Amino acid sequence: MTNNNEIKVKSLQKALEILNLFTDKPVLGVTEISEHFGLYKSTVHNILSTLKAMEYLEQDEDTGKYRLGIQIFNLSKALADTYSITKIAMPYMQELSNQTGQRCYLAVPYRWEVLYLEAMYPAESVELMRSILGERAQMYCTGLGKAMLAYMSEREIREYLSGTELKAFTENSITDKEVLKEDLVRTRQRGYAIDDMEHEFGIKCMAMPIFDRSKRVYAAISISGLAPHFTDGQMAQWAILLKKYVNKIESRL
Question: Rounded to an integer, what distance in angstroms lies between the CA atom of residue 85 and that of residue 77?
């Protein structure tokens, strides 16, 4: 969450706010942006032109509209490189994805949200692959988030619950904080979290935390796919695989 008290350069803030707008809509024009922020078109044009010159944006020659540029990719790659766990986990994630036939995700906790670092797909579904680096999601309604939250300290869990509004993404989303606390207890008991179509209808996942050498939650890894594939029996089998690869990752941290 942005701390406005620490913002010293308002023009830079506005440029970054404009850049952030592209996370919700990949292609934008000057008019759309100026109307969204209530800015003069000339001001927006100058900001966009600067971001384009720095290769943070690209401009379509036919429409004149803008989209994210190559420097965003370079920053994303640099972000991933700061997390050594990404390179460690990727080959294990690919093996896990191939063996289960499901997608496999890696994420870390970031300001009480889930920050995605990597996604791997079954070998036969490589055409579906897309970059997920930098995407964020809520903790309370995702397997990855609940896997990490369940193993945080009681103080951290209380702090999270006191500062988080549990909004419904689907009819299965947990919106009662007492129910969520019970779900986190069950997560610890069975060793993995379950997202039962709580974030996206029709999609189910199971996730386990990854601990660093000081036994603190560092990240989480998940298996995700269409809900009918995630029967209780199948998840029990996949939990064994998931734990095996979590152990391999942790041994190399």
Answer: 13
Find the farthest-apart pair of alpha carbons in the chain and give their distance in angstroms, rounded: 61
- For residue range 65-100, list pLDDT tens digits in order: 999 888 887 777 666 666 678 889 999 999 999 999
| Residue in this structure with the two tokens 């990719």, named with its chain if needed | 73
Task: Decide: 34 and 41 in contact? Cβ < 8 Å.
Answer: yes
CA distances, 200 to each of 91, 150, 173, 182, 227 (Å): 27, 21, 9, 21, 10
Residue with tokens 């020659």: 61
Displacement of CA 133 from its chain's centroid (Å):
7
Q: Do 29 and 63 touch, CB atoms closer than 8 A?
A: yes
Instruction: Quote the CA–CA distance of 71 and 164 in Å, as a whole number.
Output: 33
pLDDT in tens, 92-116: 999 999 999 999 999 999 889 999 9
Q: Which of 22, 4, 25 is nearest to 13 (CA)?
A: 4
Q: Look up residue 108 and give its two tokens.
A: 């870390």
| Cα atoms found within 13 Å of the Cα of residue 84, Cβ hemisphere only | 5
pTM: 0.70
Angle between helices 84-100 and 232-252 in degrees, nearest 10: 150
| Rounded Cα–Cα distance for residues 1 and 244 (Å) | 35
